[in-house]
Known about the structure:
The protein has helices spanning 42-50, 72-75, 92-99, 108-117, 131-144, 161-173, 188-191, 212-218, 259-267, and strands spanning 2-9, 19-26, 31-36, 57-62, 65-66, 78-81, 149-153, 180-184, 197-202, 205-211, 219-224, 232-238, 241-247. The protein is of the alpha/beta class. It has nine helices and 13 strands.
Amino acid sequence: MIEVNNIFFKYPGAKQPVFDDFSLKLESNQIYGLLGKNGTGKSTLLYLIAGLLRAQKGSVRMDGIETWRRDADVLKDVFLVPEEFDLPSMSLSKYLEYNAPFYPNFSRQILEACLRDFELDTELNLKVLSMGQKKKVFMSFALATNTKYLLMDEPTNGLDIPSKSQFRKVVAQNMSDERTIIISTHQVHDIESLLDHILMLNQHELLLNDSVTGIMEKYVFEYRRQDQMEGVIYAEPTLQGNAVIARRQVGDDETQVNLELLFNAVTKGLVK
């Protein structure tokens, strides 16, 4: 379990804090989608959870241990894929030799399976890869660490359309009952089919903290004509008709959550 308790965090020189008396609890065996506008603290929250930043007040605990302490028992169970990174100029095999031993549950089998799904060879020179290829290799390594907690910041940025589909496949295949994954992204359509739980951040607060199941039980997401708008909470005009969120009524079928529509409705205060 990850527990964020009443934290205050402000970057040096900043006028406003990123978080002030902010709390959050994340359960195991969930894939969380962390959504929000630019500057709302999504990346900062991931870095606080990973222990790379320390809150000035409050606590961030992973399985009861404060993450800023960078305790070895915590570090072996958490992996962060940042939005921007680089890989050293070396072969993949050398990279594995240096880095895999830090993760006791590392699986070469998972790594090779992920690389195959991304249509990459296992004998690679990291120096000559494109940025998109490096991202695929790094995400494959991240999944192969088999850490209990996996944090991903904008993982689909820089990936082409087929690669985004491959990304969803490798994440779904390597989710387990013991794992918790947090994905922070602006590319909501890239991940909406993966998520178990949705977190929407505004400055200093959570606007939405609900399971996908809970959202589907309360709302329907569909297209309607102008004469079918009764009970609609939020609507946007599209070429297919009005994309709407409406209260789910008895007898209504479940519909897939439209994350973009939901995000716009939540930020306008129409859905909570």
